[in-house]
């Protein structure tokens, strides 16, 4: 596990990139890495490997609410590393000095109190504002952006998202940036990455292989602007017939086991 002093990073006003690969299973991410299908991520992740973690939510909305409240995916073991960020706890609780403590109802407000500009580049429709629930997560940011071509039915969604994210990062550099990107390519439908097949474990792996180059371009583009804390993880996984289960919102290892990585680059 990588130990990162997020509190010092934020006090110094350095950039933060938080990417969620929507619905990406841990076993898919691990297999793609071992097969050499995600070389850009392989060159960035600590040790060239994903950590296996457990998500606090089984579908997009509760997982992200938890993330922005300070509860990132946890290791499948009793011992946990210090949290990257945490809402101000009760007086009796001791917090690691490397944890960024925000005295606010969520991370985005807390970062704003420290001068950060918080920006969301949405992917799945929970970030689209098309429905009342679809306005909850984007409404937490200073700025939020979503277009139909950012969503999973578009085969080149990650390229569109990354191009937009880099354009945003290049503007108004007078404030430190918290940039959040919800990558939709790994969310169903992704059968088009295997010639319009049905959605499956294999087509999700193909979607991740597609997204790899663009995610590498995103991180390379940002690091040209300074030092960044980068967090990459899935919000939850997806069941493709495992033990008879399909989809999300269920407590099954295919859904609860997610890839996770964090680093300063």
TrEMBL record:
One family name in Pfam for this protein: Sulfatase
Entry-linked InterPro entries: Alkaline_phosphatase_core_sf, STM4013-like, Sulfatase_N
Gene3D superfamilies, alphabetized: Alkaline Phosphatase, subunit A
Signal peptide: none
Domain (Sulfatase N-terminal): residue spans on this chain: 16-252
Database matches in NCBIfam families: fam_STM4013 (NF038075)
Protein name as catalogued: Putative esterase
Biological source species: Kitasatospora setae (strain ATCC 33774 / DSM 43861 / JCM 3304 / KCC A-0304 / NBRC 14216 / KM-6054)
């Amino acid at each position: 596990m990588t130990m990162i002093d997020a509190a010092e990073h934020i006090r110094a006003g350095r950039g933060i990139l938080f990417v969620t690969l929507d619905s990406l299973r841990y076993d898919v991410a691990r297999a793609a890495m071992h097969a050499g299908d995600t070389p850009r991520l392989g060159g960035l992740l600590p040790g060239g490997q994903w950590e296996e973690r457990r998500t606090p939510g089984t579908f997009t909305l509760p997982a992200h609410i938890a993330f922005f409240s300070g509860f990132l995916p946890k290791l499948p073991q009793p011992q946990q590393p210090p949290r990257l960020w945490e809402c101000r706890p009760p007086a009796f609780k001791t917090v690691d000095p490397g944890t960024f403590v925000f005295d606010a109802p969520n991370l985005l407000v807390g970062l704003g109190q420290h001068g950060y500009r918080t920006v969301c580049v949405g992917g799945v429709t929970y970030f689209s504002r098309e429905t009342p629930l679809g306005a909850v997560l984007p409404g937490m940011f200073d700025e939020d952006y979503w277009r139909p071509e950012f969503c999973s039915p578009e085969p080149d969604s990650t390229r569109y998202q990354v191009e937009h994210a880099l354009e945003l990062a290049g503007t108004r550099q007078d404030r430190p940036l918290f940039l959040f990107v919800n990558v939709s390519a790994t969310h169903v439908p992704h059968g088009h990455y295997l010639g319009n097949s049905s959605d499956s474990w294999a087509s999700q792996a193909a979607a991740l292989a597609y997204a790899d180059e663009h995610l590498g371009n995103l991180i390379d583009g940002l690091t040209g602007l300074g030092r960044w804390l980068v967090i990459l993880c899935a919000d939850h996984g997806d069941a493709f017939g495992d033990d008879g289960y399909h989809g999300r919102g269920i407590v099954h290892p295919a859904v609860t086991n997610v890839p996770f990585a964090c680093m300063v680059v």
